[in-house]
Design a protein that fits this description.
Length: about 300
């Protein structure tokens, strides 16, 4: 029998709670749901709220088939909010918004990664933050990403912008910057300029081009996720990796001190302690007082 539980007045059917999703650690679906309900909810919900959500589903674990979907999954309850999204190929397209704990638990029961754009549903294609996705090409690791991140932090500060870091939950690092709302196209242009400058300043380390032949041993500064059509792993989401790694906020001290890749690997079981110690390190992204305008010459 499928267990039924009530979350803030909403009845949810939770299935296959004993199913092992992460064989490397023996982590079950029930433990994944517990992570979102008991550990992550207070931190992840503010970063999901009011943004259309895309899902990477991995119902049989990271070794099974993966499904990336922007459309509301079949059987989406009528109490889960959806919002229209601008898509040229489908003018009537809508996406889910995860606004509260019941919606979070309904989505987590589908076994998903959460991905969100840099804009809110109330202002499509108008970004209120910028992301720089630092992606290392082997043999480079997150250690090299941290070196590039430190350069970018100083460069952003020269333009009066604040930067905050989180792990991708995979092998890279994300820098997030709170902005006064600006057209996504302008944010993308500015992010590209930063990537080009990083490559010029750190030619042996940074790269702004995606070409695979150029990437071994370097860090690709991916600016493209600022496009209005792109999404990035939401802070605190679990990832479909061999272990239940989290896209976890990190301190600048941790970035500065990173000497081994494992130093910035965070798993679900360790997040309660980090949240107790640090709170939400990405809370400033939600504070209008931390938002700054793009430089006037950014396009």
């Amino acid at each position: 029998m499928t267990p039924i539980t009530e979350v803030e007045g909403r009845r949810l059917s939770l299935s296959n709670l004993d199913k092992v999703l992460y064989p490397a650690t023996g982590t079950t679906k029930g433990e994944v749901l517990h992570y979102y309900a008991a550990t992550a909810a207070g931190a992840i919900l503010p970063h999901l709220r009011d943004r259309p959500v895309s899902f990477l589903r991995y119902p049989d674990g990271p070794g099974g088939q993966l499904f990336f979907t922007k459309n509301p999954p079949p059987g989406t309850p009528d109490w889960v909010r959806t919002t229209p999204v601008p898509r040229s190929e489908d003018p009537a397209a809508r996406q889910v918004m995860v606004q509260d704990l019941p919606a979070l638990m309904w989505a987590a029961n589908l076994v998903v990664e959460f991905h969100t754009p840099q804009w809110r549903a109330s202002a499509p294609e108008t970004a209120d933050r910028m992301v720089l996705d630092l992606d290392p090409g082997s043999p480079a690791t997150i250690v090299e990403c941290c070196a590039v991140a430190l350069w970018l932090r100083k460069r952003l500060a020269a333009d009066g912008l604040f930067a905050y870091g989180k792990t991708s939950g995979s092998k890279g690092l994300h820098l997030l910057v709170p902005l006064e709302p600006a057209p996504s196209a302008e944010v993308s242009a500015y992010a590209k300029r930063l990537a080009v400058e990083a490559e010029s300043a750190l030619p042996e380390l940074a790269l702004h081009r995606m070409k695979r032949a150029l990437r071994p041993g370097k860090v690709f500064v991916d600016f493209s996720q600022n496009s209005a059509s792109k999404t990035t792993a939401t802070p605190y989401t679990l990832r479909a990796r061999a272990e239940p790694t989290v896209s976890a906020p990190v301190t600048w001290g941790e970035i500065e001190g990173c000497r081994e890749p494992e130093a910035l690997v965070f798993r679900a079981e360790g997040m309660a302690g980090r949240l107790e110690r640090y709170g939400d390190l990405l809370g400033p992204l939600l504070d209008p007082e931390r938002a700054r305008p793009l430089p006037a010459d950014s396009p």
